[in-house]
Amino acid sequence: xxxxxxxxxxxxxxxxxxxxxxxxxxxxxxxxxxxxxxxxxxxxxxxxxxxxxxxxxxxxxxxxxxxxxxxxxxxxxxxxxxxxxxxxxxxxxxxxxxxxxxxxxxxxxxxxxxxxxxxxxxxxxxxxx
Length: 129
Ligand SMILES: [Zn+2]
Prior knowledge:
By secondary structure, the protein is an alpha+beta fold. The protein contains 1 helix and 5 strands, in the order βββββα.
């Protein structure tokens, strides 16, 4: 019988998020920027690192990543239902766009056909003068 327990179930280890120099790193909207209380170095870390204890990239001191105002730690663990909802919404939008592209392609083909007819008419008109 298969064992249901997975050794990867606790993948949210602190090693997953690298703290970076705020000066050097590309900072995203979701990143948390803070200063090392030990050496004052500006650090930046992925928002999922909020509340974790990390090592300062400059002095190596243990630093507690601040939790941004208004952020609930439970926000970090979006339940799978919410993630699925977002996925479905994205897929719906994608299908809508695909439909629009198809319609535009059809319209383009019609216009090209019309253009061909008009060019023929113009050519005939020129030939008859
Ligand atoms: Zn430091």
